[in-house]
Amino acid sequence: MMKLVGFPFPEGGFSRNGRLMKRLCQQHRSLSSFLPSVLGSSRRGSFRRMSSPEAKDPFCQAKLAIDELIRRYNSQLSMCESVRRWRTLPTAPRRDPGDVQFTLMCYNILAQDLLEMHGDLYDRHDSVALSWPHRYDRLMAEINLVRPDILCLQELQDDHREQFSNGLANFNYGVLYKKRTGDKPDGCAIFFRRDLFELVDYQDVEYYQPSVKLLDRENVALIAKLQVKGNPTQRLVVATTHLLYNPRRQDVRLAQVQVLLAELDRLAFSGRFANGTPKYTPSIVCGDFNLQPYSAPYMLMTTGYLQYDTLSAKTLEPHGPGSPLGRVLLPPSLGITDDCRHENLTDRANQDDIRATRLYNSQCRQPRPPQTGEPTEPFCQGTLRHHLKYASAYRHNIGEGNQEASTFQRDWITVDYLFYSKHQHTGGKAFTESDLKLVSVYGLPTVRQAREIYAIPNMYFGSDHFALAGRFLLKPAGTATAAKPTSEESKL
User: Locate the Endonuclease/exonuclease/phosphatase domain: which residues (predicted)?
Assistant: First the structure.
C-alpha cells in the first residue's frame, strides 16, 4: 500500500474500526461532538438508509455510518493507487548534463470560507470530511506525496497562508501570494524551492479593470520569473490563475485570458531573433480556468489563434444562442492588442517597465496612462493571436469514453490545466522546440473512475478539485531543435 507522508489514518487503512473511531473522535474533540456530525451525514442522505431496529441506537448508527465511510475510503484509496500515479511520456527526453529536473504541482485547494459560504453545494458530502482540520491534513498529505519543487495554489485563504507556510517549512519554499480583489477571502500563491530557484521578477495581475465591461470581476493571476540557482541563463516563468466561474460568461474568461497572455508576453520576453521575432523564456501557466477542453479560450491558449467575432456572445460557441460577439472584446484604451501584447511594448528591444502598460492595479494606485494619438497596432479586428506556443500537459481524451476529470460541476469535467511552452516561434511558419521538456504527468481519473468515489472532498481527497502535477526538464538556454509546425501554427 502507498505510504502517505502526514496521512492522518492508519497505514493499513480502515480495517481497525477502533483506531478509526479514535482518530475521528480526536479530530472532533469528543464522541459527543463526533456522533452528530456522522449522523447528520446519514440524515442528509450521504449514507445508505439504515432501517433496522438496531439502527435506532445512536452508537449503532455511528458504527453503520463509519462502516460506510470505510467502504468509501477503500474505494477512494483504490482509485488513488491505480490512477494517481506518475505516467512517463513515450516521447520523454533523456536527462543530459546541465539539465535541471523539477516537479510542478497545481492545486485548487477550496477555501474553507467559500465551502462554508456555499454549504448547499456540499449537502451530499460526508460532513466529517468537510472540516478544515481534516481537509488540511489531506491537502498536506498529497503535497508531501508529490513533493513539488514549485507549488501553485488557487483558493488559498488569506488567513491560512501562515499555516501552509509552516506546514511546508521542510521544503524551504519562497512564497508569493495575491489575494483576490474586493472582499474575497482567498487568492493565488506560488511556492518555489529556494535551494533550486531564485526569484528574478514577479507580477500580480488583477482582472478587474475600471470601466471595462468584460473586466468587472475580481479574479487574479500571479506570475513569477525564476532562474536556476547558480546558473542565471536557465530561466523559467511560472503563472497561476483562477478565472471566473460563471458557466454562462465565456466571454469574460476570454477577456481575462487575453490580459494574462499580455502580461506573460511582458514577463517572458527575453530579446529578439536576428529577423526581429520575439524570444521568450520558457513558461508554465496553470490553474483553475473554469472552462472545458477545446473551448474558445482553450484554443487560443494552445493554438495561438482564435477568430471570435462570429462566435455567440457570452458562450463563445460557433452556433450558440443569441447574437455574435462582434469585433470588440477589450477596448483600445486598455492598450492590449489583438496580438495579446501591450501596445507600448511591441517595438521593445530589451526588458520592459511595468509603467509602459495601461493595466490598473489596486496596489499601485496610479492612474492608467492615457492613450496618445491613433492606435498603430491591431485592435478589435475579431481575431486574437499570440506567439507563446502552449501545450496542455494532459491529453483530456475527449470523445474516447475515458475523458479526464479534475472536478465536479453537475458532472465530472476538466477545468484545471497545466500549460507549458512546448515550442518557440522563430518567425514566419518556423518553430523550434522549447528548452522546457515535459517528462511525466500525475495521472487524473477518468469520468467513470471519478464517479466511483462518490464526491470530493471526502475522507481521502481534501479538495473539490484533483491536483495536477508535471515533471519537467529545463535544458540549458539555446539547445532547442527545429520543430514542424502544426496546422494551427501555420496561421501565425
Answer: 107-465
For helices 17-27 and 31-43, angle between their N-to-C axes, nearest 10 degrees: 100
Determine phi and psi for 162, rounding to 5 degrees: -65, -40
Find the mean pLDDT for residues 341-345: 88
Say if CB 471 and CB 103 are below 8 A apart: yes
Give the model's pLDDT for residue 193.
Answer: 98
Rg (CA), the chain: 24
- 434 CB-near residues (< 8 Å, 6+ apart): 282, 389, 420, 421, 422, 423, 424, 480
Cβ-count burial 309-347 (b if 16+ within 10 Å, e if not): eebbbbbbeeeeeeeebeeebbbbebbbbbbbbbbbbee
Contacts of residue 165, Cβ cutoff 8 Å, sequence gap at least 6: 173, 175
Classify the C-alpha dihedral 340-344-345-346 as positive or negative: positive
| Structural contact between residues 179 and 193, judged by C-beta atoms closer than 8 angstroms | no
**What pLDDT score does 288 carry?**
98
Q: Please state whether 51 falls in left (phi above 0), alpha (psi between -120 and 50) or beta.
A: alpha
Helix (H) or strand (E) holding 228: strand 220-228
Distance CA 132, CA 401 (A): 35
